[in-house]
Amino acid sequence: MSTPIPTIRCRENGPLVIQGPICVLDHQGNPFPLPAGKDVFALCRCGSSANKPFCDGAHRQSGFEGNNLAPAQPAV
To answer: 12-64: per-residue pLDDT in tens?
Structure first.
């Protein structure tokens, strides 16, 4: 059986939502505690979260705008 590939989704004007088995490390390589059994996490993209690196919804009040789109794929 294969291991699921983690997926990162950029939410429009919001966080990075990561689904799948992950480990979030600080700049020294120490892991942040993650709730057991949870496989979806939101990481702050706006810089306003009081719970960095995790999102706490502060982007709604900060006026953060982020609507990045992936480049169009060439027709096959």
So the answer is: 999 999 998 889 999 999 999 988 888 899 999 999 999 999 999 999 999 99
Furthest-apart CA atoms within the chain: distance in Å: 45
pTM for the whole structure: 0.83
User: Hey, CA dihedral for 60, 63, 69, 15, is it positive or negative?
Assistant: negative
Specify whether the CB–CB gap between 35 and 9 falls below 8 A. no
8 forms beta bridges with 18
Report the 3 state secondary structure along the chain.
CCCCCCEEEECCCCCEEEECCCCCECCCCCECCCCCCCCEEEECCCCCCCCCCECCCCHHHHCCCCCCCCCCCCCC
